[in-house]
Design a protein that fits this description.
With 264 residues, this protein is of the alpha+beta class. It is 42% helix and 12% strand. The protein has 9 helices and 8 strands. The longest helix has 21 residues. The protein is globular, with a radius of gyration of 19 Å.
Length: 264
C-alpha cells in the first residue's frame, strides 16, 4: 500500500500490525527446504526450493485480506475478487512470484482481475516474508560463504539500511528478509569504494543517530542508524519506514538505490 492510499501515519501503523501478524505466523509455520548446493555468486533465495503444501500460505493471505478489509472497507470489492481467484494453483504461483520478486506477474494479475496494481504484490509480499525469513534462518551457514556484493546476499534487495550496534560495528541489514552482514564503516555498500574523497556522509540536523553514506563513484546511498541510543527496538522493515526522510534527502542530492550492476 502506498502513501496515496493512506496517510503516512496510518501506513506505518498498518505495517506495524502486519509485522505483529508475521511474528505470530513465524511461530506457527514450519518451513522445510529441499537440501541442495547453493551458488556463492548469486542471492540464495531465488534458488531455494520450499517443501510442503501451500495451505498455510493461503491462510496467511486470507488473514491479511481480512485485516485490510477492517482497516480499509473500500478495498473489500477488490479483495473479494482476489479471494475468488485464490485457487491452490494460483496460491502456488503467487508464492513463487513473491519469492522471486516477480512484480511483472502481479501487475498482469492485477490488470486481468481489474484491481489496483499495488494490491496483489502488497498481499503476496506481506505474507511471503515469513517464509523468506525462516529460510534465511536455516541458511546462515550457506550465506556465510556468499561472495555477492551490491545487494542482499539472501534475497537480492538493494542494501539500503545499515545499523551501528552495541560494539560500534556497522552491519547492513535487509528490511525484507532480515539477513545482516558486516561492512566497513566508511565504505559503499554497492561498489565497495572506500575512498574517503568519494564517500559523502550526510547527517540531518538534530538527528545524531542518523546519517546517510553516499558514493560519488556509483551514486548509490545507504541509510545508517545508530541503534545504541534508541529506546525502542524496531524491526528492520519498520526502521526502514521510519527513516524514509533520509531517502528523500539522499534522492534530492541526486543519489539512488541499487541502480548499478552487481559486483561479484
Amino acid at each position: 500500500m502506498t502513501v496515496d492510499q493512506a496517510s503516512s501515519h496510518d501506513y506505518l501503523q498498518i505495517q506495524k500490525d502486519l509485522v505483529t501478524m508475521q511474528e505470530k505466523w513465524m511461530e506457527q509455520i514450519n518451513v522445510q527446504l529441499v537440501d541442495k548446493k547453493y551458488p556463492v555468486n548469486a542471492p540464495l533465495l531465488p534458488e531455494v526450493e520450499f517443501q510442503g503444501d501451500i495451505q498455510s500460505y493461503k491462510q496467511c493471505l486470507l488473514e491479511t485480506m481480512e485485516y485490510l478489509e477492517n482497516q480499509r472497507p473500500a478495498l473489500k470489492p477488490q479483495l473479494s475478487i482476489i479471494k475468488e481467484k485464490l485457487t491452490e494453483e494460483n496460491c502456488r504461483k503467487w508464492f513463487e512470484a513473491a519469492i522471486m520478486m516477480n512484480e511483472f506477474y502481479f501487475e498482469h494479475f492485477a490488470e486481468e482481475s481489474e484491481v489496483e496494481k499495488w494490491l496483489p504484490v502488497f498481499l503476496a509480499e506481506s505474507t511471503s516474508r515469513v517464509y523468506i525469513r525462516q529460510a534465511v534462518n536455516q541458511l546462515q551457514e550457506e550465506l556465510s560463504k556468499s561472495q555477492v556484493k551490491g545487494c542482499c546476499p539472501a534475497c537480492g534487495e538493494p542494501p539500503r539500511l545499515a545499523i551501528v550496534g552495541k560494539n560500534g560495528g556497522k552491519e547492513l541489514v535487509c528490511p525484507r528478509c532480515y539477513y545482516s552482514w558486516k561492512q566497513k564503516k566508511i565504505s559503499c555498500a554497492y561498489c565497495d569504494n572506500d575512498d574517503h574523497e568519494q564517500i559523502i556522509i550526510m547527517k540531518p540536523e538534530g538527528q545524531e543517530r542518523e546519517q546517510i553514506i553516499a558514493c560519488d563513484c556509483c551514486k548509490n546511498y545507504t541509510k545508517v542508524i545508530d541503534t545504541r541510543v534508541m529506546l525502542e527496538k524496531l524491526t528492520p522493515e519498520i526502521l526502514d519506514l521510519t527513516t524514509i526522510h533520509l531517502d528523500y534527502i539522499a534522492q534530492e542530492e541526486g543519489y539512488v538505490l541499487g541502480e548499478e550492476e552487481l559486483t561479484i
